[in-house]
Amino acid sequence: MSYKNTIEFAQKLDAKDELRKYKEEFHIPLQKNGKEHIYMCGNSLGLQPKRTKEFLNQELEDWAKFGVEGHFHAQNPWMPYHEFLTDSYAKIVGAKTTEVVAMNTLTVNLHLMMVSFYRPTEKRHKIIIEKDAFPSDIYAVESQITHHGFCPDSSLIKLKPRNGESVIRTEDIQDIIEKEGNEIALIMLGGVNYYTGQVFEFEKITELAHLKGINVGFDLAHAAGNVKLELNKWAVDFAVWCSYKYLNSGPGSVAAAFVHEKHHNDNLPRFAGWWGHNKEDRFKMPDDFTPITTAEGWQLSNPPILSLAAIRASLSIFDEVGMEKLVSKSKELTDYFMFLLDAIESDRIEIITPKERGCQLSIRVKNGNKELFDKITQKGVIADWREPDVIRIAPVPLYNSFTDIFNFYSILKQVL
Predict the structure, then answer these.
(1) Which end of the chain has fewer CB atoms < 10 Å from its terminal CB, N or C?
(2) What's the rounded mean pLDDT across residues 264-276?
């Protein structure tokens, strides 16, 4: 498409957008002057769907009406409530319904998965992760390495780009797998790197790792609800994700996990809890733990219903739209965004996000000067600053428009 950097052109693109009506489904934060903020921070916290209140109120009413009997008699019974999310999650991450479960928080799930999939030996004990992975992931894998009696200095391989580059090349990951594969127990990457916005080649990396007997897991915090995923087809061993970014479930909401069906009957080691016990005799309170033979077998406790209700509200929108349309619009938004940013003649900024991306674009600011971020914030942009030098911008296809992107461009250009 031939783009133009005019507001009229952006408005024409919006007029053709079949998803434009969904912006009305969300609460957009207002500035002090009453105008809407330009909200570009869905990669950190998604906006609240207006239907969330209805979903939450239903559970509050049923709690008041039924008390404990709500587990069975609520309009949406609480006992199986987490199962109401299963079909939606399976579609979003490309899995079978038996492979996904809503539970816990992201880092808790990561630890639970590593109990099962990081089983180091004296010979095979290394983990591969990005050097600039989200800190919580690094803390988690380092603590797992230490817990097993190894040293992160020798057991943790941190991937980094080549000198002068911003993203990690798949061929460099392949080289490490080939050279050190017999010593590597686990590859644990962010599906979309939180800092650069790079989308990793899930299928190729998984295939290369499995040839060496290496387990593969992904943190999908910035991928779920953002990019096309086919976890079952790619034979990824496990994945974890939060629900409050692109999935719009509210701050700190319940996370989720994927365990490939090939592992459901492996009798893997795990940390057990009663909600993961076989449903048929869970309430008979048996002494021995018998896990459910699906991803649900990794559950610990019954989940918080109010949080699940908020997730379910958002997922109902994903069910209506579908990931295919969301990914298609996301590409159109970011392509137009790149065109506009390229039109700005300034040596103060650099786009470090590659073509393999979701809806996040990372703008590196020369010398890490946060003043630029502060100025666009003052002019009504809600974005995200990440140390030492990046402004993260995420035009989310459910509630951001081409006009939003043009208005952001105009503010950035003016400030520069």
Answers:
(1) N
(2) 94
